[in-house]
């Protein structure tokens, strides 16, 4: 039941679904949210021209936007060392030979010839191209995380600001229909003052094994710590929703399971699933994560990460000799598999964020936001439950219906919505401060990790001073 201030008995709570049947009248909140249509911006006279730096999973995905929105975006160059990826992207987008490169450095040696670059190389390869292309005055969409060290993030931010380029970070979750609606509801003030946020990032047991035990984000020295690589999105959302600077932060977390001492005895000395006596019982069997789905005809992620051309033989060979066939208890991973973060904000509000590997759900976040006049709850992207303490009503809001965003491909539609927002900023020559926002949420993530390592509460101002970070 709701706490109704000043009332001895709580009024009856009506549960109503506001969008499914057109005959049902829309609530005031839904009407308000629907009125707030995004400004229609006409497509530019000619498409915004883009070079893709790193034609892997993310670079290829962003590039696809151009195929469906030709009046807005044209991919005119690619830099990618892996031949199959480079050629596939070049052919798909009909890129002339002179603009197909093995390495971003070759592209950066030329005078600027297009409007923007999408930098989608791996985390440790963001810093150099981001600085180089900012200095060449390219607008930049840089995949998250910005970079693995605070100083690199700071320098990238300064380069983007000093060169006055449009800069977007791959915080795609900000752009999903449901997160946009959450932000609007907060901004309308119907929740009153936001006092507390609880946020859970359930990574998914097999997804964690894929990316953070066997895969590219398993080892801090090769990418970054897991709060940054997995949950910088989530800290960014909390920071955006709170809209007040974070002042103090604490954190705990460990690598609890994916290590040798947790290896089941039946697995013996096997270091690969293909050779393991325990494989059929193991929740993390590479055969069940990759080979069985490939046999059923699946070709997409995560199998597409193992091989450029998916067929049973090549997946089998990847499990025999590649990193994704390794026993999860015998890898060289060192990033934590669960972490909690507590945040205090300048306005006195608090937030907690949990990232955990051991979940059935794969990245289907759940969030509760508590304000002085109401609360929001969502588990996944399909609906948001809004409880109004004042009227005693509870509404189920359907973000897709309200926003008209039904395309849920790529992070619930966030990937393409981010690209769209970035292109619109270029077309309208608007905001040039995306970098500062992105920097601040990265700063909080670095501070949280410092708190976890040192077992202390980190004061953000002191942390900035210690790291010689001036306000930006
Ligand atoms: N926004 C999100 O939600 C999200 C999701 C997943 C990954 N990411 C981030 O996206 C980035 C890319 O991840 P991915 O899964 O696409 O990785 P990937 O390995 O599939 O792609 C990276 C590509 O960069 C290429 N590359 C390496 N050196 C290069 C060079 N010198 N010049 C040009 N290209 C070069 C690689 O060959 C590879 O094809 C990472 O930083 C990752 O953390 C973001």
Automatic annotation (TrEMBL):
<feature type="domain" description="Gfo/Idh/MocA-like oxidoreductase C-terminal">
    <location>
        <begin position="183"/>
        <end position="459"/>
    </location>
</feature>
<dbReference type="GO" id="GO:0000166">
    <property type="term" value="F:nucleotide binding"/>
</dbReference>
<dbReference type="InterPro" id="IPR036291">
    <property type="entry name" value="NAD(P)-bd_dom_sf"/>
</dbReference>
<dbReference type="Pfam" id="PF02894">
    <property type="entry name" value="GFO_IDH_MocA_C"/>
</dbReference>
<dbReference type="InterPro" id="IPR004104">
    <property type="entry name" value="Gfo/Idh/MocA-like_OxRdtase_C"/>
</dbReference>
<dbReference type="InterPro" id="IPR000683">
    <property type="entry name" value="Gfo/Idh/MocA-like_OxRdtase_N"/>
</dbReference>
<dbReference type="InterPro" id="IPR051450">
    <property type="entry name" value="Gfo/Idh/MocA_Oxidoreductases"/>
</dbReference>
<feature type="domain" description="Gfo/Idh/MocA-like oxidoreductase N-terminal">
    <location>
        <begin position="48"/>
        <end position="171"/>
    </location>
</feature>
<protein>
    <submittedName>
        <fullName>2373_t:CDS:1</fullName>
    </submittedName>
</protein>
<dbReference type="Pfam" id="PF01408">
    <property type="entry name" value="GFO_IDH_MocA"/>
</dbReference>
């Amino acid at each position: 039941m709701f706490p109704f201030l000043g009332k001895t008995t709580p009024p009856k709570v009506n549960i109503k679904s506001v969008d499914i049947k057109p005959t049902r009248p829309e609530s005031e909140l839904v009407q308000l949210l629907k009125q707030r249509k995004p400004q229609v911006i006409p497509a530019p006279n000619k498409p915004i021209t883009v070079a893709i730096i790193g034609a892997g999973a993310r670079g290829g995905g962003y590039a696809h936007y151009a195929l469906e929105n030709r009046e807005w975006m044209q991919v005119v160059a690619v830099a990618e060392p892996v031949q199959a990826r480079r050629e596939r992207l070049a052919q798909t987008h009909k890129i002339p030979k002179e603009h197909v490169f093995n390495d971003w450095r070759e592209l950066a040696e030329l005078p600027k010839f297009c409007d923007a670059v999408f930098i989608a190389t791996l985390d440790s390869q963001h810093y150099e191209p981001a600085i180089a292309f900012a200095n060449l005055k390219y607008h930049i969409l840089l995949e998250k995380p910005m970079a693995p060290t605070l100083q690199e993030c700071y320098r990238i931010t300064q380069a983007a600001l000093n060169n006055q380029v449009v800069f977007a970070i791959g915080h795609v979750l900000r752009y999903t229909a449901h997160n946009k609606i959450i932000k609007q509801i907060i901004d309308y003030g119907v929740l009153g003052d936001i006092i507390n946020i609880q946020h859970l990032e359930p990574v998914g047991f097999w997804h964690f094994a894929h990316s953070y035990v066997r895969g590219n984000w398993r080892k801090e020295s090769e990418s970054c710590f897991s709060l940054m690589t997995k949950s910088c999105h989530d800290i960014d959302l909390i920071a955006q929703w709170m809209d007040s600077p974070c002042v103090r932060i604490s954190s705990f977390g460990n690598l609890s399971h994916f290590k040798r001492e947790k290896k089941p005895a039946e697995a013996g000395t096997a270091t690969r699933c293909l050779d393991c006596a325990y494989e059929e019982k193991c929740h993390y069997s590479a055969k069940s994560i990759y080979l069985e789905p490939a046999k059923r005809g699946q070709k997409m992620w995560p199998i597409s990460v193992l091989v450029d051309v998916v067929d049973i033989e090549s997946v089998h060979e990847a499990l025999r000799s590649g990193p994704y066939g390794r026993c999860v208890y015998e890898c060289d991973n060192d990033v934590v598999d669960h972490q909690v973060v507590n945040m205090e904000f300048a306005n006195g509000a608090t937030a907690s964020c949990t990232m955990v590997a051991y979940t059935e759900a794969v990245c289907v976040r759940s969030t509760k936001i508590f304000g002085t006049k109401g609360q929001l709850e969502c588990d996944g992207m399909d609906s948001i439950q809004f409880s109004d303490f004042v009227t005693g009503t509870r509404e189920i809001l359907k973000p897709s219906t309200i926003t008209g965003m039904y395309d849920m491909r790529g992070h619930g539609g966030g990937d393409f919505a981010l690209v769209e927002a970035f292109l619109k900023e270029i077309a309208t020559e608007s905001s040039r401060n995306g970098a500062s926002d992105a920097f601040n949420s990265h700063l909080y993530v670095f501070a949280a990790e410092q708190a976890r390592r040192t077992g202390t509460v980190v004061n953000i101002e002191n942390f900035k001073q210690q790291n010689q970070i001036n306000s930006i």
